[in-house]
Specification:
- By secondary structure, this protein is of the alpha/beta class.
- It contains 18 helices and 13 strands.
- The strands form two sheets. It has an eight-stranded mixed beta sheet, sandwiched between helices. Strands 2-1-3-4-5 form a five-stranded parallel beta sheet, with helices on both faces.
- Strand 12, helix 14 and strand 13 form a beta-alpha-beta unit.
- The protein starts with a strand and ends in a 9-residue tail after the last helix.
Length: 390
């Protein structure tokens, strides 16, 4: 594997020198991005590391070009002052990771190793489900809309009634609720998993998935909010891709915000289900979020609108919501007092009250997700995966 550094400061080369003794790793340097492009002409894959002296816009342009040409290149960027906006632009351009100068000394080698691991045959989003798990994100930038309730019930419905090997990842790293929703003890979480990231593989990751009675496996959020800092986006990316090869479906429960964790989840997703409710604040936030996703280059076909508490009597109807948000509603989940009761019991409503209208509506949504991967045919032929616990 070729690792090319472009860094007049010398910082990146000095840090990465320790990797040169690794089997199969060759270090090289280039003065410009154009020179770097010529370096891997005869190599199978390459990691390009840009230092703090390289202009970010030039990195983004090169990364976008390499990505568009489907070249097997991963870009790791070191910048003097990382910001949320810079990270968003980098992710959309196809940059693998962004590090500040202050953290490069400690984290650069790990980031490059993760980039090396990520390189391989590239698969377009539309084709991912054919070669691994279908990854589904449940998303909303407004809290209290029922996002985690829907995510956990979808996971349980896929694993239980539909009999599919399914994992759920709680990416609300500071205040995740998946453990509470499923009444699971967070003895091992994503925080513990990333502590062994340098040797984490599918077999080891299985040990960090907490089993639920339905057959669903959960990678829970850290117990302590301060531990969220250790769960970086490159580690999240690697974990999602490991899970993609272990199960049939991966459900990502994202935080109620628009940050690098959410963008990483969306970048790895085959479908994104945006949850809204029948109130003006939720509709406004959902409209802005969907507009932002379009601006960032995500295709409209990736994002699907789920209307929760759809039968609320609030002088609005579903057609008005669709018009305001400029999106088509793919599922309507009705209000039901059974839902908060099931949350308090720690038993998803699809199990607690499977014959209820709300449970059936969630099961219908889960079935549509399953059908999009050709699940019915798989089940009939007995070719469903045996699951992460096998």
């Amino acid at each position: 594997m070729l690792i090319v550094t472009i860094d007049a400061s010398g910082l990146c080369g000095a840090v990465l020198a320790t990797l040169e003794s690794s089997a199969g790793v060759t270090l090289a340097s280039a003065g410009t991005l154009e020179e770097a492009s010529a370096s891997w002409a005869t190599d199978e894959a390459c990691v390009v590391v840009t230092g703090p002296t390289v202009v970010p816009d030039e990195v983004f342009a090169a990364a976008s070009r390499w990505s568009a040409n489907q070249e097997p290149v991963a870009v790791v960027m070191v910048t003097p002052e990382p910001s949320a906006e810079l990270l968003r632009r980098a992710l959309r351009a196809g940059v693998r990771d962004v590090l500040g100068v202050s953290e490069a000394q400690e984290a650069l080698c790990e980031s490059v190793i993760a980039a090396v691991t990520s390189l391989g045959p590239r698969v377009e989003s539309a084709d991912r489900a054919d070669v691994g798990a279908r990854v589904v994100s449940v998303f909303s930038t407004k809290g209290g809309v029922g996002k985690s309730v829907i995510a956990t019930n979808l996971g349980v419905a896929l694993a239980g009634p539909l009999g599919r090997s399914t994992a759920i990842v709680d990416l609300d790293l500071q205040f995740g609720d998946v453990a509470i929703m499923l009444q699971l003890a967070p003895e091992r979480t994503i925080y513990e998993a990333v502590q062994v990231f340098d040797r984490l593989d599918a077999e080891m990751l299985r040990a960090y998935l907490t089993p639920h009675d339905s057959g669903l496996r959960a990678l829970l959020a850290p117990v302590r909010p301060e531990d969220a800092e250790a769960v970086t986006v490159n580690r999240i990316s690697a974990i999602i891709e490991l899970l993609r090869g272990m199960v049939d479906f991966v459900v990502l429960d994202t935080p109620a915000t628009f940050d690098d964790v959410v963008l990483t989840a969306i970048d790895h997703s085959d479908d994104v289900y945006t949850v809204a409710t029948m109130d003006v604040a939720s509709i406004k936030n959902t409209r802005i979020s969907m507009q932002k996703l379009r601006q960032l280059g995500y295709d409209d076909s990736l994002v699907h609108l789920v209307l929760n508490r759809a039968d609320s009597k609030v002088w609005l109807d579903a057609a008005e919501v669709e018009k305001a948000i400029e999106g088509r509603i793919v599922a309507k989940i009705p209000s039901d007092r059974l839902v908060p009761r099931s949350v308090n019991k720690g038993v998803p409503v699809v199990l607690d009250a499977p014959r209820s209208v709300v449970a059936k509506s969630i099961l219908d949504l889960a079935r549509s997700i399953a059908d999009s991967k050709g699940v019915s045919g798989d089940v009939a032929q007995g070719t469903a995966r045996t699951g992460v616990g096998s």
